[in-house]
Amino acid sequence: MTAEALEGHGGELALAPLRAAGVAELFTLSGGHIFPLLDAAVKADVRIVDVRHEQTAAFAAEGTAKLTRRPGVAALTAGPGVTNGMSALATARFNGSPVVVLGGRAPQARWGAGSLQEIDHVPFVAPLTKVARTVTATDDIAAAVAVATAEALTPHRGPVFLDVPLDVLFASGKGDASGPVVPAPAEPDPDAVRTAAEILARAERPAIVAGSDVWWGRAEEALVRCAETARVPVFMNGMGRGCVPADHELAFNRTRGLLKEEADAIVVVGAPLDFRLRFGRYEKADVVHVVDAPEQQAGHADVAVSVVGDLAAVLDRLAEGGRPQRDRSAWIERLRAEETEARTADVDLLEAPGTPIHPARVYGEVLRRLDSDAVVVCDGGDFASYAGRFVDVKVPGSWLDTGPYGCLGSGPGHAIAARVVHPDRQVVLLLGDGAFGFSGMDFDTMVRHRLPVVAVVGNNGIWGLEKHPMDALYGYDVAADLQPGCRYDEVVRALGGGGELVEDPNQLGPALDRAFAVSERDRLPYLVNVVTDPANAYPRTSNLG
Ligand SMILES: Cc1ncc(C[n+]2csc(CCOP(=O)(O)OP(=O)(O)O)c2C)c(N)n1
Ligand SMILES: [Mg+2]
């Protein structure tokens, strides 16, 4: 393929390969160092979404990547713009999200003389990214962006960072407009696949745990085929949620606890063996770990076999080779019975009539109004944990959580991304009151860009996920209280959106109906601020993992 020759300023050279990779939006907050990137976006018809804090720009870029599986792009100005984006970069690293951050940088001709916002970003961004480098010649910009973007998209995916000194970015130069070239996925080692298939085939009580890389690797159909052909129950986390639709007979969510003592084989696909998965320690199970790149293998865990390679290819081979040698119907029926029992037990919580409102009741009312393809975004402590328990994901690519980095404040950026890339789908943002504080100002962004997001705050007036554990450990707590009943809805109204406070459980449903109707009609965010019971703690087995 002969690449199209390109001439222009540094911003145009930077955006061309991203356009070729399908990028259609740029998340940013202004700064003189990055003007050429903004100018190029205007000329190339890339939608600019300007936010109120750079962390929101970078979280929105991550949300875009998660929802579209294209690179998500943020342009951050030199110095504080880049430092403000670091938590979101770390989040993208943990989630394997292909995010491209383009940073401004003080001019290189005067480097060291003390220009405004002059700092070398590369050393502090490098541990968070797959690539972190400075492009020092205008003619190198297009190729550097193409190569970095390819790296972001290559398994194991992750964020990349390039900064371009002001004098290099404003200058004119040449390049070519070809997009990133992503290498073909690695072929898995046949011996490792055979061993994995044998473990699966002889298991009586197996399970698959599927994580974000199944989604990133476009392996969701292979996952369904594998589950159905080999008759294996599936549990999902992160972007894995929905890869087997929640209403599938082999999809499970509430019975993960049974795996610890009862499963005899667990195939973890596309997820790290981290605190969410007991660090890979199960009492009776042989653990098969299927990863998309060698560095994802878990050195800390005692696994029966690691398989490295294209996840869809591995799952297809496991489908065939893992066909059961023994009848698994008793195991599947047992899990289903327990799952149904757990769900039945939850009905009382979801309908809890008391005041102050039980957080689960909020979910009872939200779920009744949720479209099957709604994008659900969660950000918070206990309130977000309830989302993981109650929200069934039926369409892959419609669940956005913070992931294992656990950074509060990701929700508004993710919700902005969701509305930008899915203008026709419901977007529901489930926020703790503590979480609201980190990026709450970006409801202004939703107003200015006419992004109808329905936000629901579980307002318990505390940092619940910290207050309860501290009480339990010390017999008292400190630095764990917020303002009870604080009017976050009024904040959103002051910014030009809609909002209301709910204290009576019977008013929850009507308030949510108004939120969906008004936000859609007026193309505005709407925040339902629900005063919930601070005495309620999410029942969890571990906190710090
Ligand atoms: C940026 C950041 N700061 C602090 C924490 C630690 N932390 C985890 S959960 C939590 C409490 C969250 O409170 P809220 O959003 O109100 O949800 P709740 O637990 O009350 O439902 C805190 C402070 C974190 N995860 N991320
Ligand atoms: Mg709270």
Helix % is 40-55%
The low-pLDDT segments are none
> Please, what is the CATH homologous superfamily of the largest domain?
Thiamin diphosphate (ThDP)-binding fold, Pyr/PP domains
pLDDT average, as an integer?
96
Q: Please report the distance between the alpha carbons of the first and last residues.
A: 50 Å
Sheet/helix structural class = alpha/beta
Whole-number tally of structural domains: 3
Number of helices: 22
CATH topology of the largest domain: Rossmann fold
- Quickly name the level 1 CATH class of the largest domain: Alpha Beta
The largest beta-sheet arranges its strands as: 3-2-4-5-7-6
Bound ligand species: thiamine diphosphate, magnesium ion
Largest sheet: 6 strands, parallel
Based on the coordinates given, report the CATH architecture of the largest domain. 3-Layer(aba) Sandwich
- How would you sum up the global shape? globular
- Estimated share of beta-strand residues: 15-25%
Gyration radius, rounded: 24 Å
Number of strands: 20
